[in-house]
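On clarity, I found the account of how folds are encoded harder to follow than it need be. What matters is that the chain and its backbone geometry are given together, residue for residue. For the editor and my fellow referees, an illustration may be useful. For illustration, here is how one protein appears when written out as sequence plus structure tokens:

___
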Amino acid sequence: MEYHDIVIIGGGPAGLAAAVSAYDAGCRDVLILERDDRLGGILNQCIHNGFGLHTFKEELTGPEYAERYIEQVKERGIPYKLRSIVADISPEREVLYINSEEGAVTVKAGAVVLAMGCRERPRGALGLPGYRPAGIFTAGTAQRLMNIEGYLVGREVVILGSGDIGLIMARRMTLEGAKVKVVAELMPYSGGLKRNIVQCLDDYGIPLKLSHTVTKIHGKERVTGITISAVDENRRPIPGTEEFYSCDTLLLSCGLLPENELSKSAGVELDRVTGGPEVNDRLETSVPGVFACGNVLHVHDLVDYVSEEASRAGARAAEYASRGEDDGHAYTKLTGRGGVRYTVPQRIDTSKMDERVTVRFRVADVYRGRSIALYYDGKVIKKQKKRVMAPGEMEQIVLTKDSFEGLGVDEITIAVED
């Protein structure tokens, strides 16, 4: 069986950054497996700007950002296989992949980095009423059809969901001459970044209706219109609030799901909130030698954070591949409460952690003038005042190793408080 020190599943922004970091940490035997016909992942279809401000200190488009990392991979001579679908990962880190040139191949890895990204929540998971006519797309599919394949998917559009892809597609379709009638959002707050609401909706006069959802799809062969209704606090449609919009296209931007079918086959424990693996401060999953980063771990709002996280995973995977498993870890659990939905990582070794560990999380509602509080075993360590916090924007707090000096901490808690 062929052996590689590190096998990285996915050649998108997370996989590329992990590969570069692993190589720079001293690992020279890294293999990237990518199912598409090019490296770069989802960034290849994200032709808008706004990427790279943290990583490269300049504003880039998605393809430009990806190309920076692709060049680094090629400069280092890191091998990669395109059009290679990973079919299975065993708990022993045996990776089965399939492509047209080699057929089915199994390789053994010293360490595996999961970087498969995420997928969109499909129509079937939303329970939308009506027929299944042509003209219904997830926002990401429409983005690919327009930006890569060159098709205008519709001329009169309604968008359900205010995730970042949906907001960006509202602007994109407007620029191509389509009329975006409305963006409807089930929740009482937007699921996207504030800057995208301003730049993609407000700047183009596109209305955003919060606490609204689609209650009927009109048309049999092709979408002819959409009925939306207001919803109550239980997210149930309110009779008498129906509004009809004539359109030929419905775009769905109703959330992203970490792509973790392979993680399950490897025996990785998943977090019930994020849908991604539970990891420690080294981004190692419950399966020794299997690491996770990027949107397969939890859905990010900035690709710069994906790259930062993936760089850490790649370096730690290189360390594991060279030294093997270290049994001497005593983990402290991280939990969220009072409006903190989850934390990543979920556990940390306070005695062997890096000097600084960034913990990322999302809140459950829109909070104004509240604080993020950090507790060690119920004792408040610090509070950080925030002007506004929203579910669409990831929050973070930095834990320092010296803050645990002389303490035997059993639980770390992050909470939203007055």
Remarks:
- The chain has three domains: 2-119+257-327, 122-254, 347-417.
